[in-house]
Amino acid sequence: MQQSKTPRSSRRDPESGRASRSSKGEQRRAEIVTLARAALVEAGPDAFVLREVAKRAGIRLGNLQYYFTTREALLAAVIEAEAAEDLEVLRTAVAAREEPKARLQAFCHAIIDRWLGDSGRVFVALMALAQQNAVFAALHEQVYRNFHAALEPILRALDPKAGPDETAIRAMLVTALIDGAPVQVLHERRQGFVDRVAALALEIGLGQAGRGAAGPG
Q1: Which CATH number characterizes residue 138's domain?
Q2: How far is residue 185 from each of residues 94, 135, 153, 179, measured CA to CA in Å?
Q3: How many other C-beta atoms are found inside a 10 Å radius of the C-beta of residue 17?
Q4: Would 186 be classed as within a structural domain?
Q5: Which residues pair with 19 in a beta bridge?
Q6: Exposed site from 13, 24, 103, 112, fewest CB < 10 Å?
Q7: pLDDT tens, position by position, 154-178
């Protein structure tokens, strides 16, 4: 299935006169993304405007638009950067463990900890935008595809006998569990809650939960 393309930023760097792939242009672009993330977390997607980001960056709106021509392009860059950082955090957490069970538990703890903070607000924004805009719907799909791709090797190691389709379903079930966990403890973190989420994720990963009466499809 052909995916909608993520909005692209401009290719020219107004400060260097060279392509934005230059180190100076990339550094400036990264700074803008960081400032835009803060603006998104504080105000939400509905109130997110380029002029506010330009103000935070100390540049004119026209200069900002050399890097990101539209609001959508900048929002997409913020979300892509956040998703990439999430995956890096997960890889680091998982790499520190050898046993598949410990890896899945580390996976759950690492992502829930992040989603209880500002990272969760970025993904709430993505879900809202995906309901309104086909570009963000495609980005939402890609983010979760990458998330499942990081999770499925852990599940395959946990239960090598499970086929590809069953492993994919288990990855979706574990993801749904992880997605909902931060919502339940957003204002009051209950002791041991995340441990129980990780334990339930382990049951799903082993095929001991979430199968339904008919068993695997």
Answers
A1: 1.10.357.10
A2: 24, 31, 28, 12
A3: 9
A4: yes
A5: 12
A6: 24
A7: 999 999 999 999 999 999 999 999 9
